[in-house]
Amino acid sequence: MTEGSSLLTDSEFRRAVLDITTSAFRAERQPSYFEEPEEELRRAFLRGDAEPPADIPFFQGWYDQIQEHVRAGRRIGRVRIHSDPLSEYQRYERWLGIWNERAGEQILYLTRERAGELGLLDDTQTDWWLLDADQDSQRVIVMTFDAEGRRISNEVVTDPVAVQEATAWRDLAVHHAAPDHRINAA
Length: 186
Description:
The protein has helices at 10-17, 39-47, 57-71, 88-103, 112-117, 160-176, 181-184; strands at residues 5-7, 23-28, 75-82, 106-111, 126-131, 139-145, 151-157. The protein is of the alpha/beta class and 186 residues long.
């Protein structure tokens, strides 16, 4: 753990991500994720018989929270680093992103190759949420993953240098990333 940080349980993590006053931004750098509540839907997608995630309470709860934040004028977004061509998991993730975007989240994509060229893959074991970057309460939640994409820790970091680094990463990634028009047109 770093100075000016604390560990969160999984339930504290979900609450902390949405406890924002102005903005939340996620850096997604893992090639795939293993989140138990999502596994059945992912398997159904790969079989070709997935129901819309908005019909599943776990997902709809997230979409409802995103919509509430967006209606209140808060910004929610992320940049996903994907391979080219997409892996099966990344095809699922882009499909799932349709509902995130309908809820009001902005999702942009950047190829792994371009992200490497830009220096955005310095620590590929972590993703993070940058929260309220323009407020005194700014913070980063650093998520560490194992090789299978399981989240193994969630650490809230308030160190101004860490927040500044996350803000610079966000700004560079957003500048070079693009929406997925193929999916959004579906």
